[in-house]
Specification:
The chain is α+β, with helices and mostly antiparallel strands. The chain contains six helices and four strands. Helix content is 57%, strand content 7%. A four-stranded antiparallel sheet has the order 1-2-3-4. Helix 1 (2-11) packs across helix 2 (15-44), helix 2 runs antiparallel to helix 3 (49-74) and helix 4 crosses helix 6 (153-161). The relative contact order is 0.10.
Length: 162
């Protein structure tokens, strides 16, 4: 949701309207993905081993996409003045890395540490955690946001929580 809010502010669009449109889209996308899952399940019976394997792979992909949409949809915003709480930090750590990092393919992307050139993706992104196998840089959503935007911890938590 952060990128939607940021983009709405940049273009001078009402933030609440933009967030509502994004939520509508996410709900629609979740419904489509669940429908695709149902179709795949129906196709499961009576197929050969290869088709079942391909359908199972498709089911895993659809489940991952549903969880990604639901995670963004259920991400709660809360503010406690200018202070951040432990709950804010825990909530922000659950912010989907897929919304912060670009070009993730097969759980891999180029490293963001800047300590080495990365002609082949060397950073693994799984379970909302990033790890570079080349240089060892690692982090959660807060660390990734801090690195990408060159900000401190408190600024990153507030930005991701807004």
């Amino acid at each position: 949701m952060y990128s939607i809010i940021q983009t709405a502010k940049e273009f001078g669009v009402d933030v609440q309207w933009a967030v509502l449109r994004r939520k509508e889209y996410l709900n629609q996308r979740i419904a489509e993905l669940k429908n695709d899952q149902q179709s795949a399940l129906l196709a499961f019976s009576g197929n050969n081993e290869l088709n079942r394997f391909l359908l199972l792979d498709s089911m895993r992909f659809l489940d991952k996409e549903i969880k990604k949409c639901e995670s963004e949809l259920n991400f709660k915003n809360s503010r406690n003045g200018n202070r951040i709480t432990q709950n804010d930090i825990e909530r922000v750590r659950q912010y989907p890395l897929e919304n912060l990092l670009q070009n993730i393919r097969n759980n891999k992307t180029n490293c963001i540490s800047g300590s080495h050139t990365d002609s082949r993706p060397s950073m693994d992104v799984r379970n909302n955690f990033a790890y570079c196998y080349s240089c060892g840089w690692h982090g959660d959503a807060i660390s990734v946001y801090m690195k990408i935007n060159s900000v401190d911890f408190v600024t990153a938590v507030k930005a991701l929580n807004s």
